[in-house]
């Protein structure tokens, strides 16, 4: 497959002869944009939050994972754009490779871009991310409702940081932080331990 420029950093970090992670394809026209949240049991366990913008998944590493409690402000560190097929990736990245460890799809679905300017007019979603504040409504199997991503530190240096926060006033049904070791894949129902045990068979 031709390596696309917008995935240069992603491709540069990986040896596709060794990892079964995907290499990349183009988006289908006219479909609602996708999101995925993966749990990644790498050197440090974290959640990976990804939103489709055109032909890539814009990505953030969220140490504690998304919360459905609007009082929780979740730190989100940007990572390199990922290919669209990464939405489906669940399995084991070999030890010693970039991101080596187990990945499950914790939640996936579509989202509705809600970003607007100060006068309430809709703005291009990718542009709103570049400017450092985007709002969107998730329709997943676990996550539902409006969330915001807001850049809180540096857009140039590698310490760039964002916050992922649920909109609204909070409700008694909020679950807060998911337990990553008990959580099950929204695709296959498996836990991290089960995917790790299944290895490449998964
Ligand atoms: Mn990760």
Question: What do these coordinates show?
Answer:
- By secondary structure, the protein is mainly beta.
- The protein is 9% helix and 37% strand.
- The chain has an eight-stranded antiparallel beta barrel.
- Strand 7 (133-140) and strand 8 form a beta hairpin.
- The mean pLDDT is 91.
- Manganese (II) ion binds next to strand 2.
- Residues 40, 42, 46, 48, 61, 99 line the site of manganese (II) ion.
What is the element layout, followed by pairings?
Elements: H1 8-12, E1 34-41, E2 45-53, E3 56-62, E4 74-83, E5 91-93, E6 101-113, H2 125-131, E7 133-140, E8 144-153, E9 161-166, H3 192-198
Antiparallel strand pairs: 1-2, 1-6, 2-3, 3-4, 4-9, 5-6, 6-7, 7-8, 8-9
Q: What are the salient characteristics of this protein?
A:
202 residues; binds manganese (II) ion
Structural class: mainly beta
Mean model confidence by pLDDT? 91
Whole-number tally of structural domains: 1
Rg (C-alpha, Å): 17 Å
Instruction: Output the helix-strand order.
Output: HEEEEEEHEEEH
Give the strand order of the largest sheet, numbering strands 1, 2, ... along the chain.
1-2-3-4-9-8-7-6
Which consecutive residue ranges, at least 5 long each, have pLDDT under 50?
A: none
Helix content: under 10%
Shape summary? globular
The total of beta strands comes to 9
């Amino acid at each position: 497959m031709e390596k696309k420029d917008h995935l240069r950093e992603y491709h540069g970090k990986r040896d596709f002869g060794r990892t079964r992670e995907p290499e990349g394809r183009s988006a289908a026209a006219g479909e609602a944009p996708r999101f995925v949240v993966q749990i990644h049991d790498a050197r440090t366990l974290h959640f990976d939050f990804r939103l489709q913008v055109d032909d890539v998944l814009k990505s953030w590493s969220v140490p504690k994972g998304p919360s459905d409690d609007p009082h929780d402000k979740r730190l989100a560190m940007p990572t390199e754009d990922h290919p669209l097929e990464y939405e489906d990736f669940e399995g084991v990245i070999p030890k010693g490779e970039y991101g080596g460890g187990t990945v499950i799809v914790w939640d996936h679905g579509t989202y509705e871009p809600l970003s607007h300017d100060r006068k309430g007019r809709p703005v291009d979603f990718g542009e709103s991310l570049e400017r450092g504040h985007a709002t969107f409504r998730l329709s997943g199997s676990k996550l539902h409702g409006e969330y915001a991503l807001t850049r809180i530190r540096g857009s140039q240096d590698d310490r760039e940081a964002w916050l992922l926060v649920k909109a609204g006033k909070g409700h008694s049904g909020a679950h807060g932080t998911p337990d990553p070791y008990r959580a099950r894949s929204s695709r296959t129902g498996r836990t991290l331990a089960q995917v790790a045990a299944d290895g490449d068979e998964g």
